[in-house]
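Running co-folding for zinc ion.
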Amino acid sequence: MVETPPKRAAAPSPKGKKCPICGKPEVTRHRPFCSRRCAHLDLGRWLREDYRIATEEEADIEEESFDDG
Ligand SMILES: [Zn+2]
């Protein structure tokens, strides 16, 4: 019987940059992230932030108070 060494699917880049989402070493193929999943997470994050700002502005309009002195 021959023991095979563990496979290394995605080798982290040797430059030492880290994924901004989870802090793992970045993978050249998914720069600057460590995986496609993290890249999608980042995209979704700023998309949601943009959406939230838009809704907050709308809410402000609804809170108009009529002050007729
Ligand atoms: Zn990551």
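Result summary
Residues 19, 21-22, 24, 33-35, 38 surround zinc ion (CB under 6 Å).
The chain has a mean pLDDT of 78.
Job closed.
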